[in-house]
Amino acid sequence: MVDDALEERLSGAIVAGKYRVRRVVGSGSMGVVCEAEHLEIGKRLAIKLIDASLAGMKDIALRFRQEARAASLVESQHIVQVFDVGADDKLGLYLVMEFLTGEDVAKLLSRVKRLPPDEAVRIAVQVARGLAKAHEAGVVHRDLKPANIFLCDREHDEPLVKILDFGISKVIDASRAESKLKLTRAGTVVGTPQYMSPEQAQGFSVDERTDVWALGLVLYEMLAGRPAYPELATYEQFIIFLVQNPPDPLRLVAPWVPAPLAQVVHQAIEHDLKSRIPNCLDLARRLLEAHPLPGMRASLPSRIDSADTWADGGVQSPYASDDAEDEPASGRKLAAVVVPPEDSLTIDVEMPFDAPPARVQTPKPKAAMGSGVRRPAAEANVEESDDAPQFFDRRALEKAATPSGGIPSAAPPRQVATGPALAKATVASVLARFPLAWAAIAFIAVGLVVAVALALR
């Protein structure tokens, strides 16, 4: 619940001369989150403000800046984007983030109590992928809980999960300068008790398996409709209970949860670090193996930021292997016709595909058969193309020239002309082949006629 006085005091305030506060959307123990706009471009943003009285405390200021640095180290669609961080003289420390529309998992569970397995696994897999990217950057969240998992509304798709609040995250990569910001002394406990790992509750060193534990407890609560660990009267009582007792078996608390899925959840919340699922990427893979979902697929470590989480599982990622995997059993191959211009279409058509017949090894022709226009390749020592045969097998050519697979057609016997008929046929053949001969004969005939006429006169 936002205090009215605080809302009135901050509404319209200018932060660092660049951002105008529109309204307060939430408040916590150390500050508030406001909806704001950039004065120059009018973009809607979210600003997290730390109370000015707390901003002077060195540890608080360092932790606040650590949140910005930790979030900026991670490039993932499942991590809230941080744009700016600084200090305002009147309002204290500020952190500028992308403005999200939707609700967090805590509010969702307060409204619906529990989620169907499909929805719970979809949320958990996205969180696991975002955490895996954070771990690659050397960042452990250490305070994962339903209130820090935000479901962003999207126009034409399922909600996109964003992880919030890296305020008490710990940078574990010693090669980064940020790892020198040790904001908690040895033995200091930070985090929300109900989602704290046993090693974290005892003040021991933590790594990515702490986030695996917390995500396992969140998944337990989404499936069962209640937290894995109950609230106790004091913080000390809760820590002792947490360290000594595992959660109740999920199958007993929520018998509607499939057994393979329940088993993965309990593997994520093992007290023994050696028995716990080692990392969030492995957790995401096991969740999808135990409870497959249409449209979601497990990704390799180098691909978790490449493919859209909600992409159609039947569409091959451009980062996938080019090796052919499953050939259609029907003996039909898919052929794609692609036209380069932008206004063109890609059309997928199915074409019958028959395996080519096995080649038959034929013996090489003997030298006596080399009566064609080419020499044998062995003699010429030159590789010749296959666009024409190297040798002319006359019998084969005569057989191929006859119709009906080499069976000669029944044709009437040819009659041989002799004597005057032969001469007549020869003249007709010559005249048919040489049209100019007709003109010459006609000219000579006309000349003879004229000559005879003149002689008779």
Q: What does this protein look like?
A:
By secondary structure, this protein is an alpha+beta fold. Among the domains are: 99 residues, 2-Layer Sandwich (Phosphorylase Kinase, domain 1); 210 residues, Transferase(Phosphotransferase), domain 1 (Orthogonal Bundle). It is 36% helix and 15% strand.
Helix and strand topology:
Layout: H1 4-10, E1 14-15, E2 19-27, E3 31-38, E4 44-50, H2 52-55, H3 58-73, E5 82-88, E6 92-98, E7 102-104, H4 105-112, H5 117-136, E8 139-140, E9 149-152, E10 160-163, E11 170-171, H6 198-201, H7 208-224, H8 235-244, H9 250-253, H10 259-268, H11 280-290, E12 332-337, E13 347-352, H12 377-380, H13 394-401, H14 403-406, H15 419-433, H16 435-456
Antiparallel strand pairs: 1-2, 2-3, 3-4, 4-6, 5-6, 7-9, 8-11, 9-10, 12-13
Helix pairs in contact: 5-7, 5-11, 7-10, 10-11, 15-16
Give descriptors for this structure.
Transferase(Phosphotransferase), domain 1, 36% helix, alpha+beta, 6-stranded antiparallel sheet, 3-stranded antiparallel sheet
pLDDT averaged over residues:
74
CATH superfamily of the domain at 101-310, called what?
A: Transferase(Phosphotransferase) domain 1
CATH architecture of the domain at 101-310: Orthogonal Bundle
Query: What is the helix fraction of residues, given as a range?
Result: 25-40%
What is the CATH topology descriptor of the domain at 101-310? Transferase(Phosphotransferase), domain 1
SS field, number of helical segments: 16
Order of helices and strands: HEEEEHHEEEHHEEEEHHHHHHEEHHHHH
Rounded to the nearest angstrom, the distance between the terminal CA atoms is 142 Å
Kindly name the structural category.
alpha+beta
In what order do the strands lie side by side in the largest sheet?
A: 1-2-3-4-6-5
Strand content: 5-15%
Sheet with the most strands?
A: 6 strands, antiparallel
CATH class of the domain at 101-310: Mainly Alpha
Instruction: Tell the overall outline.
Output: elongated
Q: Return residue spans where pLDDT drops below 50 for at least 5 consecutive residues.
A: 174-183, 300-349, 364-392, 404-413
Query: Based on DSSP secondary structure assignment, what is the total number of beta strands?
Result: 13
